[in-house]
Amino acid sequence: MIKTSHISERTIGRLSLYRRLLHQLQADEKVNVFSHEIAQLSGVTAAQVRRDLMAIGYSGSSVHGYDVYQLNDSISRFLDAPQIQNVALVGVGNLGQAVLTYLSGRRPKLSIVAAFDKNPVKVNRVINGCRCYPMNEFAAQVQQQKIEVGIIAVPGSEAQAVCDTMVASGIRGIVNFAPATLKTPTGVHVEVLDMAVSLEKAAYFARIG
Amino acid sequence: MIKTSHISERTIGRLSLYRRLLHQLQADEKVNVFSHEIAQLSGVTAAQVRRDLMAIGYSGSSVHGYDVYQLNDSISRFLDAPQIQNVALVGVGNLGQAVLTYLSGRRPKLSIVAAFDKNPVKVNRVINGCRCYPMNEFAAQVQQQKIEVGIIAVPGSEAQAVCDTMVASGIRGIVNFAPATLKTPTGVHVEVLDMAVSLEKAAYFARIG
DNA sequence: TTATAACTGTGAAAAAAATAACAGCGTTAC
DNA sequence: GTAACGCTGTTATTTTTTTCACAGTTATAA
Ligand SMILES: NC(=O)c1ccc[n+]([C@@H]2O[C@H](COP(=O)([O-])OP(=O)(O)OC[C@H]3O[C@@H](n4cnc5c(N)ncnc54)[C@H](O)[C@@H]3O)[C@@H](O)[C@H]2O)c1
Ligand SMILES: NC(=O)c1ccc[n+]([C@@H]2O[C@H](COP(=O)([O-])OP(=O)(O)OC[C@H]3O[C@@H](n4cnc5c(N)ncnc54)[C@H](O)[C@@H]3O)[C@@H](O)[C@H]2O)c1
């Protein structure tokens, strides 16, 4: 039986945050860091930080706190796949192109290796160093390039269909920008980035506090 | 003493989701809807839906469920300000322009009435029907146009400074796209839309399940 | 050496969120 | 008329997440 010491989604998100911050600290040549410093920089409590780090089994010292380099490394070993994970983007519109630009060459371990669109005008061009394929080549490219993660940036009305294509092609991690609730079989994870909802929340709390 | 029957952030987010879905149902001329239908469409449980609706004090009927129009209306009265809430966007780059296009004319109650950038090339032009101002006019425009919500789409290194400007100008609801944890005084709400974190989470769960 | 100090790791407690459970209620079927 | 049905509103329960609190640890200083 595999010991799946379950780590919550929340914790994964925070670990990603901590890592980004540690990267910055490393650039600043900081060698050690305390839980309360990480907490301060990431907007959580020190206890939360310690608990999250406990989850990945990294131990610090009571005097020097955590070694920035080692902690960074530990989180990376935990979060990242041993090899590169390839990503596909579907929907090369306004947002899709911004995302392509943004991610282009930024993360070594997670790179968008193929874009897809149903619009023939966009297809078979290279945009920000990324080739744009027609949708009917989706499954083949996913298999060929071992793509594991999908980003959906098509209109809401098309999102479920695109999602289904992704799932059918074996993708099990999806980032969804479209204003649509996707239905997926268990085992497929969807990260929701819903701007409309976020804006409404911000507006609500701007009023209510 | 004001009876602030506290409604959780989570619930606010779901209400926004339900409303979007009800809007669609209305377009489909559906008159009534049951909690389990809303649940199904929004990916939560029926009990959760009923609990959320309880929070805003809307009651349905045990036979016909909820009246689509009325529920929509109830949620809107709860979520929306009585009058329009104006929004400012800071950072008219790739993402900022996509956001401008996306929101342009889409929501009557929440419209971006001003964009800001520090790049002189972008300033004093109209982009998607929205005027782009230089940053030094920020406070004045916020006051003049009664802007209550801000969207941050500048590089991470600039985000805190922009945030501080927003807070100083009286903005109390912020949507942040930058990969930075913002520090704000209590009473200011920040909605985080962190693509880097979401992508890493999706990649992690694509592997781990 | 021994006290002091500041931190970590973690069990225990608290808080928050989600789920389950069910009484009550119109409607329909008979 | 009344029994059965399928839903809501809400209370109770469970689960998840966060925070608290403190024993244990290691450097430092007296
Ligand atoms: N633009 C933004 O800033 C923004 C912000 C938040 C959310 N969104 C959401 O992101 C999505 C994309 O927004 P956008 O502004 O880039 O829209 P867009 O219209 O500019 O681009 C959509 C692209 O998807 C392509 N497409 C449509 N259906 C497709 C399909 N079935 N298969 C493959 N490609 C398809 C279109 O050809 C087009 O290139 C939308 O769901 C939108 O609601 C956008
Ligand atoms: N492009 C994307 O798809 C994407 C996705 C996720 C997150 N982000 C984040 O969103 C932010 C914007 O991304 P982008 O791709 O649009 O970048 P960009 O470089 O294209 O645009 C940034 C804009 O902000 C302006 N700017 C910089 N500093 C400023 C300041 N202090 N005040 C006012 N304006 C300022 C610049 O002049 C530029 O126009 C970044 O933080 C990025 O990490 C972008």
Task: Give a brief rundown of this model.
Two copies of one chain form a homodimer. Chain A is built from eight helices and nine strands. Chain A has 209 residues and is of the alpha/beta class.
Give the tags.
homodimer; 209 residues; alpha/beta; Arc Repressor Mutant, subunit A; Rossmann fold; 7-stranded mixed β-sheet; two-stranded antiparallel sheet; 9 strands; 44% helix; 19% strand; globular; binds nicotinamide-adenine-dinucleotide; DNA-binding
Please tell me the total number of domains of chain A. Answer: 2
Largest sheet of chain A: 7 strands, mixed
Helix content of chain A: 40-55%
Give me the CATH architecture of the largest domain in chain A, please.
3-Layer(aba) Sandwich
% residues in beta strands of chain A: 15-25%
Give every kind of bound small molecule, once each. nicotinamide-adenine-dinucleotide
Poorly predicted spans of chain A? none
Number of DSSP-assigned strands of chain A = 9
Q: What is the general shape of chain A? A: globular
Biggest sheet: strand arrangement of chain A:
5-6-4-3-7-8-9
Mean pLDDT of chain A: 95
The Cα radius of gyration of chain A reads 20 Å
Structural class of chain A: alpha/beta
Whole-Å distance between the termini of chain A?
Answer: 48 Å
Q: Indicate the multimeric state.
A: homodimer
Number of helices of chain A: 8
CATH superfamily of the largest domain in chain A: NAD(P)-binding Rossmann-like Domain
CATH topology of the largest domain in chain A: Rossmann fold
Q: Largest chain interface and its two residue counts?
A: A-B, 58 and 58 residues
CATH class of the largest domain in chain A: Alpha Beta
